[in-house]
Predict the structure.
Amino acid sequence: MLLKNGTVYDAVNREPYQADVAVREGVIAAIGPDLQPQAGEEVMDCAGKRLYPGFVDAHSHLGLDNYGMGYEGHDYNEMGDIVAAQLRGIDSFNPQDKAIPMALHGGVTTVGVGPGSANVLGGTFLAVKTWGSCVDDMVVKAEVAMKCAFGENPKRCYRDKGDSARMTTAAKLREMLFKARDYLARKEAAGDDPLKRPAFDMKLEALIPVLKGEMPLKAHAHRADDICTAIRVAKEFGVRMTLEHCTEGHLIPEIVARSGFPAAVGPTLTNASKIELVNKTFETPGVLARAGVQVSIITDAPVIPQQYLPLCAGLAVKAGMDPFQALQAITINPAKHLGIADRVGSLEVGKCADLFLIDSRRLELVGACFDPRNVLATVGVRGPVDYTVVHGQVTVRQGRLAWLDEAELAAQANDACRRYLARNG
């Protein structure tokens, strides 16, 4: 497929530019002027359209907290084990969640999804595409982070089961990390001798990639003191961490920046449903970005419906965030946050062909303070998006899901994904 004459917002260069984009075998094959189609290749005239990378959300529960299902679709929190490091989000993900096609309509093509924040340790997140019929074919990276939580949620959920204070939450996380460190040391000391190895422990096994620096802790923390506690624990054990929600990050921007940890900010387009959210503001992403923090904007879907990720970025722009940094906060930054920036998050040759196209004439501006060159200047769009492309497959066409032959298109998407992963590991 050859996209001709579009205005490209690639999330790498600050200024947009006119170019053609060639999509072949599920990847971006070329970007430049006057590209020529191959024999039989579909050519799409994108004059008057803006081309963006497919949007990426670093923190969502799409597919685990299913749309319109209630308890039967609530598969994101295990309520009987406060330290459940052995759980894997991939085992709860439902590709038939009705919110997934809604995400495509908003141009969201990749999401980091996984357990909630009821537990001190909740299990692993995965990165997954929003198109396909089986999670094994949709997954970009099966384990991107180990979820942990600070603040109100663990002590609320386990107040009668051994955790009624923030210091207890921190102590339980430390205890598991100490045990995992000892377990790893004894495994390594045993070498190939099975008689000297410690008894197998699935929870401690799950924490070994964290201790080895292969996987970060994904730390749920809203309040400033919880953010500081999360940073303190990570530094104590020398592990990587991403700061999730970071609601009061604007109160301590220098501390967050000094930690070197990236921040995923949100969900902000909500009511303050608990005390640790009373200081939330759309100014937070901009404040942290100006302090030098790598910022992603998140929905925590379904807290905010997944398709409104770009809306949240637009409101951050309205609150003072630089428009280009806001674009990066829903494209390349969350891709880095999830450890998949080599595959998604920007329009660059060799990356997966995840694209979002929209007619410039249908952008509805809502405030003179917005930068009119940027889609993040929009809160509303008159009519649906034109196209969403995942792995080179058109999944939304002229505002409608391309499910005229759902089985065939899903098979094509799965095949494209498998080919891409086989090439890129």
Notes: Residues 2-424 form a domain with the TIM Barrel fold (CATH 3.20.20.140). The chain has one domain: 2-424.
